[in-house]
Amino acid sequence: MAWKMVEETVHDWERIDRLRALADGIGRCRRCPLSRHRTRAVAGEGPPDARMVLVGEAPGAREDQTGRPFVGPAGRFLDRLLAEQGFRRSDIFLTSCVKCRPPGNRTPHRQELTTCTSTWLLPQLRLIAPAVTVLCGRTAVAALLGGPFRLADHHGTFRRQGDMTYFITYHPAAAMRFAETAAAMQADLALLAARMGR
What we know:
Helix content is 50%, strand content 13%. By secondary structure, the chain is of the alpha/beta class. It has a single domain (2-195), classed as 3-Layer(aba) Sandwich (Uracil-DNA Glycosylase, subunit E). The chain has a five-stranded mixed beta sheet, with helices on both faces. A hairpin with a 2-residue loop joins β4 (158-161) and β5 (164-169). α1 (2-28) runs antiparallel to α4 (110-128).
């Protein structure tokens, strides 16, 4: 019993060290043009053993200033939606497909998505090994599942790819703007909460 606890503790420290090394690498990354426009790269934050990872598109202006994910208006809206379903932000690892803010908040280009996802996001997901990865919005779905997905047809669904389970929903920035999208996202998160035993 004691050896098992020691092994788990060592594994947790190794995971923390590897996530920290990834975050350091993200902070120094110059693999795509987005690095030239950023104030701060946003690696993500949350427990290294989170059961849930939430992936957005890219940092916004506030995230770029602070180096923290989902801290702008969309992040506050997301916090409220999560809390309504019994989720605590402190239990979730929050990150994005690309770690640097695109100029003018444009959608990341395909090559930027591919580079950042393969170099940084997928290694983060493999280390954390969550029970579910929540993909918020069309860009996150395209980056991790590929293919053309209409969110209207696939939101609120689970997808299995390799050893990862993904859950598709809307991005909170879109849900803030459209009442119908907000209602759909609320229903999606209620379904997710039920599935995760909340």
